[in-house]
Amino acid sequence: QVQLVESGGGLVQAGGSLRLSCAASGRSFSSYAMGWFRQAPGKEREFVAGITSSSRSTWYADSVKGRFTISRDNAKNTVYLQMNSLKPEDTAVYYCNTYPKSDDYWGQGTQVTVSS
Predict the structure, then answer these.
(1) Is 27's pLDDT higher than 80?
(2) Full DSSP string of 15-74
(3) What's the rounded Cα separation, in Å, for the pair 20 and 3?
């Protein structure tokens, strides 16, 4: 079983950067592929980025490719999302989860707001 707590969101101007963190509890964290997801107001929750358990592979939604970087530190039970060149359309609540996602593991998310 894994419990996830996201942090690092905030208000930033377009073109700025933020680094999100997802702290996981549970002994089996390092065995899971992990992902970041986001939900903008009035929209469905969508996939943003994924990473394998060993960090060997990463993959991204086309909308963030080249701007966002997912990483993890299994020793710290933490997954990160470095977000650069932020755009107003990146405004959303960001969540981490296993990949594929599981309804058992949604946390409270962290709000990211990008002003134009």
Answers:
(1) no
(2) T--EEEEEEEESTTGGGS-EEEEEE-TTS--EEEEEE-TTSS-EEE-TTTTTTEEEEEET
(3) 16
